[in-house]
Design brief:
The chain has about 450 residues and is α/β, with parallel strands linked by helices. It contains 18 helices and 8 strands. The chain has a domain of about 130 residues. Helix content is about 50%, strand content about 10%. The protein has an 8-stranded mixed beta sheet, sandwiched between helices. Helix 10 packs across helix 11 and helix 10 packs across helix 17. The protein is globular, with a radius of gyration of 25 Å. The two termini are about 40 Å apart. Bound molecules: guanosine-5'-triphosphate and magnesium ion. The site of magnesium ion (MG) has 5 residues, from helix 12.
Length: about 450
């Protein structure tokens, strides 16, 4: 917690005496290959190098692994050194190393090149340094080529729209509508967005097409302004995952559990999808893989009973987080909504305030269907936030804008693949700005 700001001051260079960054000496017994002790000269050299590096996790990691080819005591010592240099508790560092070592074992990895990106991902979570990385660049990198291409096309079309028009006249707005619709923003959302843009242009007294980008950026900033939310909860925190079948609920639970475990939380996963036998097995495998606790009943059991007993286990077992999976049968059947409402009631009765978050999972590749699903679930059971999956498999991505325009709900994470680390915190504003070309032109080919 708060490492980010601490880190910044620490590495500004004006953070006081050098001893600030001197880590506590470690007496790691595994570090037997290094015959030296706490006065080892490599520490000073490493400290200086770290202080000179650009203050980013990726750069620090480069320094840490330089000259090391394989996992082993030397790398562990250096990692522990990095933790303490960032003023993170040393026992956290040791726990981190132990967990990472066992993961390497399990995966059969040895070479740094095989595990460096996983190491960086885990460090970012453990050290609370995620914001510091340029998420947006990485996001677009991982998105489907389709989205990247669409982004380029939109930027280009808006460029030529601007250069072809002196003024923001009717023809300009008509053509803009076309561009937005092409980006899969949808008809209604497009009409809404264009109306807003016209109003904003007027309010900003922008009449020239040349000022359009500024108008667009200003409007997107307002539309995507993150809302302050009370995130504190009376533990255990209870999260309910909802959505139609196949959208990625179970996978997302595994990914969220993985993130939370990396952040040092004790996580319980409960199989509220008792509709399919395979669902519970799939979840159990995930739970085992990420090291989370697991609760299930038999196939066909009442999902509300699962919620009831899992809630008991979460409290008595001292868990920090309970993630409840649910079935994803067709949302047009009202009984699914009734079932979900019943689960909500049971959770709330057992633990006041629960569920603290109902997360609706929607699949980006379903395009405008995402909107009708959001509407149904939001009206039927209530939704607190959205996770948009499979953004790696779509060519458009305008669905992000459509969902934000249509509902007052934040998209908190996006899924960019099937792996556990493929869930990313999402900044809708940066994404929309980049997608719709609201930024100043960059060096696009
Ligand atoms: N490419 C990609 N695939 C994903 C992503 N998220 C989930 N998937 C895949 O989508 C498929 C369905 O995921 P599940 O997690 O089983 O979906 P579900 O909502 O639990 O499905 P039901 O339990 O049948 O309702 C699986 O093959 C996942 O690997 C993602 O972000 N990107
Ligand atoms: Mg499932």
């Amino acid at each position: 917690m708060g490492f980010f700001s601490k880190v910044k001051t620490l590495w500004k260079g004006d953070a006081g005496p050098q001893t600030d960054a001197q880590p506590v000496a470690d007496g790691d017994t595994r570090a037997s290959s290094t015959p030296t002790d706490e006065s080892a000269p490599w520490r000073d050299a490493l400290t200086l190098e770290l202080r000179q590096a650009e203050p980013r996790l990726s750069q620090w990691l480069e320094v840490i692994v330089s000259g090391i080819d394989v996992a082993g005591p030397e790398l562990w010592q250096r990692l522990i050194f990095l933790f303490t240099a960032l003023q993170a508790p040393e026992d956290e560092a040791r726990k981190f190393v132990a967990a990472f070592e066992s993961w390497l074992d399990q995966m059969g990895y040895l070479r740094v090149s095989e595990f460096k990106s996983e190491l960086q991902y885990r460090l970012a979570l453990a050290l609370d340094l995620e914001d510091e990385e340029d998420e947006r660049d990485r996001l677009f990198l991982k998105l489907s080529e389709g989205v990247a291409k669409t982004k380029q096309q939109i930027t280009r079309r808006i460029d030529s729209l601007i250069s072809a028009h002196g003024e923001l006249d009717d023809d300009f707005w008509d053509q803009l509508e076309e561009i937005f619709i092409m980006a899969d923003i949808g008809y209604e959302s497009t009409m809404d967005l264009v109306t807003r843009l016209k109003d904003r242009a007027r309010a900003m007294s922008v009449n020239e097409a040349a000022g359009f980008r500024e108008v667009l950026a200003a409007e997107l900033d307002v539309l995507f302004a993150p809302k302050k939310r009370i995130v504190a909860v009376n533990p255990p925190e209870v999260v309910m995952m909802i959505g139609v079948n196949g959208v990625g609920k179970t996978t997302t639970i595994a990914k969220l559990a993985y993130r939370a475990q990396m952040q040092g939380k004790k996580v319980l996963i409960a199989a509220g999808d008792t509709f399919r036998a395979a669902a519970s097995e799939q979840l159990q495998i995930w739970a085992k893989r990420v090291g989370a606790g697991f609760f299930a009943k038999t196939e066909g059991a009442d999902p509300a009973a699962v919620a009831y007993e899992a809630m008991d286990m979460a409290v008595s077992g001292g868990y920090d987080l309970l993630l409840l999976d649910t079935a994803g049968r067709l949302h047009t059947k009202t009984n699914l909504m009734e079932e979900l409402l019943k689960i909500r009631r049971v959770l709330g009765k057992k633990h006041e305030g629960a569920p603290h978050r109902s997360i609706l999972v929607i699949d980006a590749t379903t395009g405008q269907n995402a909107l009708s699903q959001t509407k149904l679930f939001n009206e039927g059971v209530g939704v607190d936030e959205i996770v948009l999956t499979k953004l790696d498999g779509t060519a458009k991505g305008g669905v992000v804008v459509a969902v934000t325009l249509g509902f007052d709900l934040p998209i908190t994470f996006v899924g960019l693949g099937e792996g556990m680390e493929d869930l990313r915190p999402f900044n809708g504003r940066d994404f929309a700005r980049a997608l719709l070309g609201a930024e100043n032109e960059e060096q696009e080919p």
